[in-house]
Design goal:
single chain, 977 residues, mainly alpha, disordered N terminus, Coiled-coil domain 40 molecular ruler complex subunit, coiled coil, CCDC40
């Protein structure tokens, strides 16, 4: 019986599928009205389906496949459907009570084709639901496989990491030592850099103060120069004095630096100068004594000179005569000198004018150079600004394009976030409903799970803290080892530096000793030279005394010779011939001796000059040696201070080494503690593994309970399926009734054509009323069919919700998600949505600000371009005005100079001191020659400007001056004509 029932159920199921396809074509027309009430429910289910993948964990796909494709369940369902169809058809037949001609059709069982339009909508909903379920199952399968692969790879990686951790510990210790060494080096470098920074700061402050003083002095000098230039325009005479003062000020400014350097040298020289003065004082005392002796000798000589005075008076008379002659010659020479002075003064005036013109041209050139440099600087700044603005434009365009792309991406992200938010809200509502229904069943399990999770979290935290402590201790140990090794290397370096410094100090000491010896030898030589100089001075004084005595003797002998000559003249006049007397022979001998003495005096003077030069050179050498001594002393003090500093650094490093040794001991103790803690952690991990095994057993028991619940849900699903079949049967019955009514209408039409119109008029009216009633009934049946179709579609949606609930229950039995987890997920999603909203708002605000800044930048660029154009135009106008003003200024200055020279000449003419050295004809010829030269020069300059236009700016002034001179010449020719 059961096999027969199964076969009948299968046949009925196949016939039902064919009937559904037949009804599908008619259901397309009524699909729009039928989907309106069921649309929100379907949408909610469709939207909840993808979200449930994220929030609610899915069951294992094998269980779902077993539930859907269980053959026993399908057979039982098909039998129930066939039974319900038979019952519905029998009830419909009893209710309708069809006429006797349709009894044969009532006995027939109507089976809709699977392509029928009435069944098409239900089949489409079922196919959509099944496709979604298939996709979800495939996704879950992929996720499970990926999770399993990740877990296996993670387990392998954990094993490898646990194996490599011990190897890394030794490496980390070495790294710790290196880190300590690097830290020590970095600290030393930091100290050095801080010292350098302090010195640089002090130097910078000094340079800033010097720059400020220099700027103040420059500004002050600039104001003075401006005043001087203004004063120059008013008076030429005062301008020369001010020009000399400006030169003196410039020289003083230049010499200020030299005087600063010389001040220190002068301080050193003062000591030597004082010593020299003391020696000079002693020498002067000796000279005073000598001069006193000389005065006594000279008193005796004065008596002799008084006697010679009487003779000199006689000679004075002869000298007066010669003086008169010389005065006459002097007067004649003075007249010649005056003429020369006048010519010389004229030449000097011309030279002054030329120098003045040269000075003016130099100033003009300097002014033009300054203006050119200023214009070049302005042009460079403008080009730089233009380049910057172009760069800003390009960067702003790039930023705008980037921001637009970001905006599009953010808008897409924003739309996806809104969709996910809606889906999450819908799933949230469904989950809240399900959570409220299942809360009572899951409270106990949640409490147990929360307790276990809290215990597990505590253990994990302890493990993590222990691992972190272990890592920190390992790092500290390595760092201390590195520090010790660094300190040892640093100590070696410092010891090497100390040895080098000691060697340098020894070399400096040796050099100092050598310099001291050299200075002592120089002092000895200086004393010897001083003694020699004193001896030479004594000899010189004696020689001078001898020379003075010889001079007096010579004078006496000359007087005697003169007397002798007079006597000889008298004798020759009396006798008529001059014979050499013994006195004349003596005179010749004395004259030869005098010549020899003069030669000796010259040689002695040359020797004295050479000795003076050698003395100056020795004094300079002594000064340079004293300077070297001072430098060496300063170097010695600096090296000594450096040695003290290094000793203090070495002591501090010794202290740091001791501290590091203490830290090493503490770190070793910490390592021992860490090893003990690691052993404890191993024991705890073993205990955790045992607890995990117990929890797995509990999980298996709960899974079995969940399977039982799943079976109950399946029973409920079967009941809903039976309801759906009943509704389909009722739909089919309604279709059958519609077909019967159509047949009746056709029969009525046939009878109407047969029956006579006049005889059966009353019957026709009755038939019309019956037809109207039938049409009303047909409309009611169509509405009922539409309602049943909607209910069938709603059953499909209900089936989907039941499947989702069953999957959620199965997954909850696996993972036991608590209300706290769901609330956390919801809060996380809400936070994400809020963050996305905020991020989107911030991005929109940034985009607005960037667009505003872009607009403002474009406006500013336009304004700056307009300002640039205006400034360029103003600059060209000002340049032309400036050139014109400069030309007028130069013209007026030249005219002023010419007028001043004219006034001087006119004043000379008025006073009578000016005399014309040339005639009008010579002046005209000279002027004509100069004008010809000027025309030739102007032609050459015009040709140069045509061939080389780049030099027009430099030659513009000369061309203008030449043009003005030619105009003046033309005016002069017109006036003369």
């Amino acid at each position: 019986m059961q096999s027969a029932g199964d076969e009948e159920g299968r046949e009925e199921g196949s016939s039902r599928n064919e009937r559904d396809t037949n009804l599908q074509d008619e259901g397309d027309k009524a699909e729009e009205g039928a989907t309106e009430p069921s649309a929100p429910e379907g949408d909610s289910q469709d939207q909840s389906a993808p979200q449930s993948d994220d929030t609610v964990p899915q069951p294992h796909p094998d269980l779902i496949i077993v539930d859907e494709y269980n053959p026993a369940a399908r057979n039982s369902v098909q039998e129930n459907e066939a039974h319900l169809l038979n019952l519905n058809t029998s009830e419909a037949m009893e209710d309708q009570q069809p006429p006797p001609e349709d009894e044969e059709e009532e006995d027939e069982f109507i089976v809709l084709d699977p392509e029928h339009p009435l069944v098409r909508r239900q089949q489409a909903a079922l196919s959509i639901q099944l496709n979604k379920q298939l996709e979800r199952i495939n996704l879950e399968l992929k996720e499970k496989l990926a999770v399993e692969k990740a877990v296996t790879s993670h387990m392998q990686e954990v094993g490898v990491e646990m194996f490599t951790v011990q190897e890394q510990l030794a490496r980390l210790q070495n790294k710790l030592e290196d880190g300590h060494q690097t830290k020590a080096q970095a600290e030393a470098k930091h100290r050095q850099t801080q010292d350098q920074l302090e010195t640089i700061k002090s130097q910078y402050s000094c340079t800033i103060s010097q720059d400020r003083e220099a700027e103040a002095s420059v500004s002050r000098l600039q104001t003075e120069l401006d005043n001087v230039m203004q004063h120059l325009l008013f008076t030429q005479g005062v301008s020369e004095d001010l020009h000399s003062k400006v030169k003196i000020m410039n020289n003083a400014r230049r010499k200020a630096g030299a005087e600063k350097t010389q001040a220190e040298e002068q301080k050193m020289k003062q000591d030597l100068y004082v010593e020299r003065l003391t020696k000079d004082m002693e020498r002067l005392k000796q000279q005073i004594e000598m001069y006193e002796a000389q005065t006594s000798a000279q008193a005796e000589e004065t008596l002799a000179t008084k006697e010679a005075l009487s003779e000199a008076e006689m000679e004075m008379e002869s000298l007066l005569v010669t003086r008169k002659q010389l005065l006459q010659q002097w007067n004649s020479s003075l007249t010649g000198m005056r003429r020369r002075d006048e010519a010389f003064s004229a030449m000097q005036d011309a030279m002054c004018e030329i120098e003045h013109q040269v000075i003016l041209l130099d100033r003009e050139i300097e002014g033009y150079k300054k203006s050119i440099t200023a214009e070049q600087d302005q042009n460079e700044t403008l080009t730089i600004q233009l380049n910057w603005s172009q760069m800003d434009c390009t960067t702003s365009k790039k930023l705008i394009s980037q921001k637009q792309a970001q905006q599009e991406a953010l808008q897409a992200h924003y739309s996806t976030c809104i969709r996910t938010l809606r889906q999450t809200e819908q799933t949230l509502t469904t989950l809240k409903k399900e959570a409220s229904a299942q809360q009572t069943e899951l409270n106990d399990q949640r409490r147990q799970l929360e307790k276990e999770s809290s215990v597990r979290l505590d253990l994990e935290k302890k493990i993590v803290t222990n691992m972190q402590q272990k890592l920190t201790h390992n790092k500290a140990a390595k760092y201390s080892q590195r520090l010790t090794s660094k300190m040892a290397s640093h100590k070696k370096e410092k010891m090497c530096q100390l040895q080098q410094l000691e060697n340098e100090i020894l070399t400096v000491r040796l050099q100092n000793q050598q310099v001291d010896q050299h200075v002592n030898s120089l002092a000895v030589t200086q004393q010897a030279l001083d003694e020699e100089i004193a001896n030479y001075n004594k000899l010189l004084t004696l020689n001078q005394n001898n020379i003075s005595s010889f001079v007096t003797l010579i004078n006496q002998k000359q007087t005697a010779i003169a007397t002798c000559k007079t006597n000889i003249c008298q004798i020759t006049s009396s006798t008529g011939h001059d014979d050499l007397s013994p006195l004349q022979i003596k005179i010749q001998a004395v004259m030869g001796q005098i010549e020899d003495l003069a030669v000796n005096i010259k040689s002695d003077q040359q020797l004295w000059m050479r000795q003076q030069e050698t003395l100056v050179g020795l004094t300079q050498e002594i000064e340079s040696n004293s300077r070297q001594m001072l430098k060496l002393q300063t170097d010695y003090t600096a090296m000594h201070q450096k040695k003290i500093r290094l000793q203090s650094q070495i002591e501090s490093e010794h202290r740091e080494e001791k501290e590091l040794e203490k830290n090493l001991k503490t770190l070793k103790r910490d390592l021992v503690k860490l090893n003990t803690l690691l052993s404890k952690n191993g024991q705890l991990s073993h205990a955790l593994e045992q607890e995990n095994a117990l929890t797995e057993m509990d999980f298996v028991h709960r899974l079995k309970e969940a399977e039982r619940g799943c079976i109950e849900v399946q029973m409920k699903h079967e009941k809903t399926h039976e309801e759906k079949e009943r509704l389909l049967n009722s739909l089919l019955e309604a279709e059958r009734q519609i077909m019967l009514w159509e047949k009746k209408i056709q029969l009525v039409k046939e009878t109407r054509s047969v029956v006579d119109t006049e005889v059966r008029q009353g019957e026709i009216q009755v038939m019309k009323a019956e037809i109207h009633r039938m049409e009303v009934r047909l409309n009611q049946l169509m509405k009922q069919r539409e309602r049943l179709l909607r209910e069938s579609e709603a059953t499909v949606a209900r089936r989907e919700t039941i499947v989702l609930r069953r999957e959620a229950m199965v997954h909850n039995s696996h993972k036991q998600t608590t209300k706290g987890d769901l609330s956390r997920l919801i809060q996380g999603l809400q936070r994400k949505t809020q963050e996305t909203h905020k991020h989107a708002e911030e991005c929109e605000q940034v985009i607005r600000e960037l667009s505003q800044s872009q607009v403002s930048l474009s406006d500013n660029l336009k304004k700056q371009k307009q300002q640039l154009i205006e400034l360029c135009g103003n600059g060209y106008m000002l340049d032309s005005d400036f050139e014109n003003l400069q030309d007028t200024k130069d013209r007026k200055l030249a005219h002023l100079v010419a007028l001043q020279s004219r006034t001087k000449r006119l004043q000379g003419v008025c006073k009578g001191s000016y005399k014309a050295f040339s005639s009008s004809e010579s002046v005209g010829e000279a002027l004509q020659g100069q004008m010809e030269r000027m025309h030739a020069a102007s032609a050459i300059l015009h040709r140069i400007c045509e061939e080389f236009p780049q030099h027009q700016g430099a030659l513009r002034k000369t061309l203008k001056t030449l043009a003005e001179l030619t105009q003046q010449e033309q005016k002069g020719t017109w006036e003369s004509g």
